[in-house]
Specification:
Blueprint lengths: L5 E2 L23 E4 L23 E4 L5 E7 L4 H9 L1 H9 L4 E7 L5 H18 L1 H13 L10 H4 L3 H11 L4 H8 L2 H16 L5 E2 L1 E4 L2 E3 L4 H19 L1
Parallel strand pairs: 4-5
Antiparallel strand pairs: 1-6, 2-8, 3-5, 4-7, 7-8
Helix pairs in contact: 2-9, 3-4, 4-6
Length: 243
C-alpha cells in the first residue's frame, strides 16, 4: 500500500505547546532537498544525536551500521500511521533486525499540534522510565489508535477526552496519571522537540511527513518497494566503498 507525505507549514502557537508545527496533507514528491552530507561522504552513524534518557535519539538496529535512516514523522499524521502499519514492519524485518541499517525516529509535530506534542512527550517520558523499547511501544499505540472523526472509534485525537485516551496508552508503558501530568510540564522536552523540528527543516529541508533522511539525503517514498530499492542502493555503495 502506498502512502503520501504531508506538506509542512509553520504555525505560531500559544500556551504550553508553543512550537513550530507541520500540517498533515497530501504530497507525492519522490525527492526532497538533499542534506549536508552524501551517502559516500558521511562517516558511519554521524547522524545520531547523543544524549541521556528522553533527550536522546530513539533508534533501532545496529549502531555501527553504515546506512542510517532518520524518519521525521508525527503521531497525529495519518500518512505516518499508514507507513508504520503497512510498510515499516517489512523494513524492520529485512533491514533493521538484520543489522543492515540504523533507524532513527525524530518527531516533527503536525496538527493538532497540542496533541501531537503531548503524544511525543509521552513516548519520550516512557523511554526515560522503561527504556527505548517503551518509546516504540507508545509510538505504535499512538499510530494505531489515532481514530477517525467520522467513525464510531474517534481514537485519542478526535475523541471527547484525548487526555483520558492518552492515559490509557501511558498505562501500557507503566506510567500513572501523575507521571503523565508531570511529563506534560517538562520544558526541556518541548525544547528538544523544537530542536528536532528546526534541524529537520533547516539542515535536511524536511517539509512534509513522513520524510526520510537516508545517509544525509532527504527522500520520500510511495511504496515499500521504493524504500527497499533505495536502501539496497545505499548498502551497495557502502559495500563498494569498503572494498
Amino acid at each position: 500500500m502506498s502512502f503520501k507525505p504531508a506538506h509542512f507549514r509553520r504555525a505560531a502557537l500559544t500556551g504550553a505547546f508553543a512550537l513550530l508545527a507541520a500540517a498533515c496533507g497530501g504530497a507525492n514528491s519522490e525527492e526532497g532537498q538533499a542534506g549536508e552530507e552524501s551517502a559516500a561522504e558521511a562517516p558511519v552513524n554521524s547522524f545520531e544525536k547523543t544524549g541521556e534518557g528522553a533527550l536522546s535519539d530513539m533508534a533501532l538496529g545496529d549502531k555501527d551500521a553504515a546506512v542510517v535512516v532518520i524518519e521525521y514523522a508525527s503521531v497525529t499524521c495519518p500518512h505516518c500511521a499508514t507507513f508504520h502499519e503497512d510498510i515499516f514492519p517489512e523494513i524492520k524485518e529485512d533491514y533493521i533486525d538484520t543489522g543492515k541499517i540504523r533507524y532513527i525516529f525524530r518527531e516533527f509535530p503536525t496538527a493538532p499540534a497540542n496533541l501531537s506534542v503531548a503524544g511525543s512527550m509521552l513516548a519520550r517520558c516512557a523511554a526515560e522510565e522503561r527504556g527505548d523499547d517503551a518509546y516504540f511501544l507508545v509510538l505504535d499505540a499512538l499510530f494505531k489508535n489515532q481514530g477517525n472523526p467520522y467513525q464510531e472509534n474517534k481514537g485519542w485525537i478526535y475523541g471527547d477526552n484525548p487526555r483520558q485516551e492518552l492515559l490509557k496508552i501511558a498505562s501500557q508503558a507503566g506510567m500513572s496519571a501523575e507521571d503523565f501530568d508531570a511529563c506534560m510540564k517538562r520544558q526541556e522536552l518541548l525544547d528538544f522537540l523544537n530542536a528536532n523540528i528546526k534541524e529537520g527543516s533547516e539542515k535536511y529541508g524536511v517539509n512534509s511527513t513522513p520524510s526520510f533522511v537516508l545517509n544525509g539525503q532527504t527522500r520520500h517514498f510511495s511504496t515499500a518497494e521504493d524504500f527497499s530499492e533505495a536502501l539496497d542502493e545505499a548498502l551497495a555503495k557502502t559495500d563498494a566503498a569498503g572494498e
